[in-house]
Specification:
binds pyridoxal-5'-phosphate, about 375 residues, 2 domains, alpha/beta, Aspartate Aminotransferase, domain 1, Aspartate Aminotransferase, domain 2, five-stranded mixed sheet, seven-stranded mixed sheet, globular
């Protein structure tokens, strides 16, 4: 199997589009004029798909939404000002007083932070770190309305049995949503595995150049419309047309960037796995057993993001390795063309508090510098 579906490459390039400008115009308009008030009001009735006011629909943003829906094999997609805009709007739109959401896997911290805010509005949540269906089933409650997954999960890149979880949820009338940012829609198709909604921070690989924020949700027309009217319009985290244009440009090179970053990250991860100062590498392609089976079944490959647990005495020694790296920028985000390094711990958690995130862990985001240069950099930092 090709690492990337050739049909997706054509979607990213928007190949075969009608004659005209290769790049879509940036429609820098906050509102749109109609011939008559009747036409305006009719358009307002379909504001989720008609350009009336750019806090709802804008033609440049819609071009990006069309491409993302195609990549996710979804009926519809909606873009937001950031990944957290998409995530918070989805949770806000789908959950109400008395509902429970189950978070499975290592979830991006601010997503849990938002769920904590929702507690004040009568929405409860719990977390489940089991990677098997029995463990996940046991964590459901009679009030569970949504199962929210992150696979690969943040920092440890653990995989969840998406197909099984979604089948279980469907049988119980529970919705499922997954944060698909790490895999991108090119390397994992959650909707084809049964998920109702796929969420993205477009800020990462899709933008790809660390210069734009963006988020998206993709799913059925009905669910995306529900999120649009209940949360997108009232909360107002709309994507700007210029950001959509930058993201459309990012999409054009996404397949090529991902292929390179995927290959280079795997080479770096394999080199690290053999290094005497490394305890463990968290990379789905290097996993064994049930995790390896899931990787083969539900992913076409892994992107350029992974973590390494070092055989070092403490947090300070780990940060010192990170600081000695010359080609890896010290920055929090990931998915751009420049390599980055960070730790999950801002402060030393101590051995008792480190929990699932070892204090000697560093996360690496592999850019486009080339595997040999990055390995040489790691070699000097670990010497
Ligand atoms: N989901 C994951 C897995 C992330 O890593 C991030 C950001 O780091 C987000 C969502 C949030 O995206 P944004 O920063 O675009 O709001």
């Amino acid at each position: 199997m090709d690492a990337i579906d050739p049909a997706d490459t054509l979607t990213c390039l928007r190949s075969g589009h009608a004659a005209g400008p290769i790049m879509p115009p940036i429609v820098q308009a906050s509102l749109f004029r109609f011939e008559t008030l009747e036409e305006l009001f009719a358009a307002q009735d379909r504001e989720h798909e008609t350009s009336v006011y750019s806090r709802g629909t804008n033609p440049t943003v819609r071009e990006l939404e069309t491409a993302l829906a195609a990549l996710e094999r979804a009926e519809a997609a909606k873009c937001f000002a950031s990944g957290m805009g998409a995530i918070s709007a989805t949770l806000f739109a789908l959950l109400g007083q008395g509902d429970h959401v189950l978070f499975c896997g290592d979830i991006y911290g601010p997503t849990i932070g938002f769920a904590q805010r929702l507690e004040g509005y009568g929405v409860s949540h719990s977390r489940c770190f089991a990677a098997d269906i029995d463990g996940i089933e046991a964590a459901l409650t009679p009030a569970t309305r949504l199962i929210y997954l992150e696979s690969p999960g943040s920092m440890r890149f653990e995989l969840l049995p998406i197909e099984q979880v979604c089948a279980l949820a469907k049988a119980r009338g529970i919705l499922t949503a997954i944060d698909n940012t790490v895999a991108t829609p090119l390397l994992q198709k959650p909707l084809a595995l049964g998920c109702d909604l796929a969420l993205h921070s477009l800020t990462k690989y899709i933008g790809g150049h660390s210069d734009t924020l963006g988020g998206a949700v993709a799913g059925s027309r009905e669910l995306v419309e529900r999120i649009f009217y209940r949360a997108y319009m009232p909360m107002g985290a709309a994507m700007a047309p210029f950001d959509a244009w930058l993201l459309l440009r990012g999409l054009m090179t996404l397949p090529a960037r991902l292929a390179q970053q995927q290959a280079d990250a795997l080479a770096v991860a394999r080199w690290l796995a053999d290094h005497p100062k490394v305890r463990r590498v968290f990379h789905p392609a290097l996993a064994e057993g049930a995790q390896a089976d899931l990787f083969a079944r539900q992913m076409r490959g892994h992107s350029g993001l992974f973590s390494t647990e070092f055989d070092l005495p403490d947090h300070a020694a780990t940060l010192a390795i990170g600081n000695r790296l010359k080609l890896f920028g010290k920055a929090i985000s990931w998915g751009g063309v420049e390599s980055l390094v960070t730790s999950p711990h801002r402060r030393d958690p101590g051995s008792e508090q480190e929990g699932r995130m070892p204090r000697t862990l560093l996360r690496l985001s592999v850019g486009l510098e080339g595997a040999d240069a990055l390995i040489a950099d790691l070699e000097q930092a670990l010497a």
